[in-house]
Amino acid sequence: MKFLVDTCVWSLALRRKPTAALSPDETRLIALLADAIHDGQVVMVGPVRQEILSGIAVPARFDSLLKALAAFADEPLESSDYEEAARLSNQCRSRGIQSGAIDILLCAIARRRSWTILTNDQGLQRCIVATSTP
User: Which of 10, 11, 50, 119 is in Cβ range 3.0-4.6 Å of 15 for a Cys bridge?
Assistant: First the structure.
């Protein structure tokens, strides 16, 4: 099984302040991420890498995150991934579900490759559910 890890989970693991208290669900997600990394099951895509690295004001922190993410090669994306994302976006909209471009792209990428998305983002979870049926 491969896991496409959403930015929010990476942020919990890599960007949060060490003193921040985690909920039980957040603790579970970080443990699942650590296990998946250990087992070689984590995949990365460029849009998630960009989101993780965006908004880092301290250059040393940016460089630290850049080095941590260097262990994960980007999965190549194809035009068909973006076309599938557009189709899924239309499907979500027809069901009254709004989705961001990156979220729906992640759904398309994971769906086409039979990967699991690791997230705690409610909006993305709604997209996953909405796109899991034709």
Answer: 11
